[in-house]
């Protein structure tokens, strides 16, 4: 599904060019649950922003299901993003003065669905993430873990090809982190491809594949062995 060929990325920092990614080549298949780890500043967010179609300004080639992503114009790149990927962030990024249901339904509103269909789909995914009957609540009245569930509902409501999560448990206590991770595992079991950045070895151990990045380079890429399986 995802195929990166020698992808490099430089940022302008003042008058200098800073190379944040060095010739990354990588394949990710549909159905995988991938963890990306590495020290702060190693290039993890830079990498997943390219993979998740937020950034199309890089060297090398990105093939996505037969489309050469780096050759798309701005509009087609944005369309690919809207249709193919769901994002989950550390700080949830919910809209404060909108209800849970409105937050989750926003991508469907952008996609042009009818109000009645939106409400039905939103209630379905809210139930899927363990938050039935919360359409009319406000995010601020929910716990951190519940807010992250809302963000996950928003990420899956368009039925994207894959999810990108940048430290989704970074702002949560360890018990809540385990619950959120269990939700990701369930989504993955049901066929959702997930690429997740984490600083937590315990979180990474629950995935199927661990990619380590160091100084913008692929350091290792191994299958995760699960005890007893
Ligand atoms: N917009 C930007 N402009 C200039 N430099 C940037 C920009 N974004 C990132 N960088 C630099 O690129 C490098 C990689 O940054 P990136 O955010 O990908 O790291 P990261 O691995 O996600 O770190 P963290 O774990 O702290 O989130 C860093 O040195 C950072 O300073
Ligand atoms: Mg980051």
UniProtKB/TrEMBL annotation:
Task: Report which superkingdom the organism of origin falls in.
Answer: Bacteria
Q: Looking at its record, which EC class is this enzyme? A: hydrolase
All copies of domain ABC transporter, residue ranges: 2-227
Among the Pfam families in the record, one is ABC_tran
Question: Per the UniProt entry, what is one GO biological process?
Answer: amino acid transport
Q: Name one GO molecular function term.
A: ATP binding
- Known EC number(s)? 3.6.3.-
- Annotated keywords: Amino-acid transport, ATP-binding, Hydrolase, Nucleotide-binding, Transport
* Xref: PROSITE patterns: ABC_TRANSPORTER_1, ABC_TRANSPORTER_2
Protein name (database record): Macrolide export ATP-binding/permease protein MacB
Which organism does this record belong to?
Answer: Leuconostoc suionicum
Instruction: Write the gene name.
Output: macB_2
């Amino acid at each position: 599904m995802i195929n990166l060929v020698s992808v490099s990325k430089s940022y302008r920092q003042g008058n200098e060019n800073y190379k944040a990614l060095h010739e990354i080549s990588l394949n990710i298949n549909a159905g995988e649950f991938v963890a990306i780890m590495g020290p702060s500043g190693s290039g993890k967010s830079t990498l997943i922003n390219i993979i998740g179609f937020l950034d199309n300004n890089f060297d090398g080639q990105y093939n996505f299901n037969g489309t050469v992503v780096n050759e798309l114009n701005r509009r087609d790149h944005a369309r690919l993003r809207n249709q193919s990927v769901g994002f989950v962030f550390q700080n949830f990024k919910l809209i404060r003065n909108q209800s849970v249901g409105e937050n989750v339904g926003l991508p469907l509103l952008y996609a042009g669905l009818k109000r009645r269909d939106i409400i039905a789909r939103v209630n379905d995914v809210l139930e899927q993430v363990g938050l039935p009957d919360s359409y009319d609540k406000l995010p601020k009245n929910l716990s951190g873990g519940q807010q992250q569930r809302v963000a996950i509902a928003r990420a899956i409501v368009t039925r994207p090809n894959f999810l990108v999560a940048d430290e989704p448990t970074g702002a949560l206590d360890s018990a809540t982190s385990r619950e959120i991770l269990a939700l990701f595992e369930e989504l993955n079991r049901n066929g959702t491809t997930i690429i997740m950045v984490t600083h937590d070895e315990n979180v990474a151990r629950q995935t199927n594949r661990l990619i380590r990045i160091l100084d913008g380079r692929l350091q290792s890429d191994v299958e995760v062995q699960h005890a007893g399986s």
